[in-house]
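INFO batch 0412 | record 1 of 1 | parsing
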Amino acid sequence: GVRRGRHWNPSLEPLRLERLTDYEEALREHLDRAVSDRLPATGDVGAQLSAGLDSSAVATTAARRLSAAGRQVVAFTSVPQAGAETFAAPYSLADEGPIASMTAALYENMEHVRVATPGRSLLTGLAEAFDLAEQPYLNLCNQVWVGAINEQAHARGLTVMLTGQMGNLTLSYKGMSSFKSRLRRGDLAGAFNEYRI
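INFO prediction complete | emitting tokens
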């Protein structure tokens, strides 16, 4: 059968705090709690790590939380095949590996693993992804690297994979006014490049 239920009903009222530093403290508190709630009681954890704010915030928070216990974060970054920079769009980052590597180097308990997917088909692991999510996979290109990262994490015995999923709508959210403005001007490519998830 089908069951429907609301798990979360966020307030739509804007958050107003006294000082700018209060926002930083509130974000740190919520990020610490959200990541800590997802950490297993024992063992190391995996994390997706890009060059962006979202997965970096999650992975580094986990590293800080696990450090005292001598536990490790294995941070996985999808990297392109050699020569991919040639085909990159202007002002885009073709290889997030170097920046992700610098982030990982800041934490003694973070191992950085670059994951390339040469020859991997868009269809590899698609049936398993559908079975897990019980819905069609929304971005086949992402499934290629997500599947490869998950396979490596599984091979290492990691049971938790932290991500910055939906960060573009939270930590990295830039607002939609620019997006709407681009659409009105007919700049579909610019709107897509600025707000792709």
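INFO post-check: The radius of gyration is 19 Å.
INFO record closed
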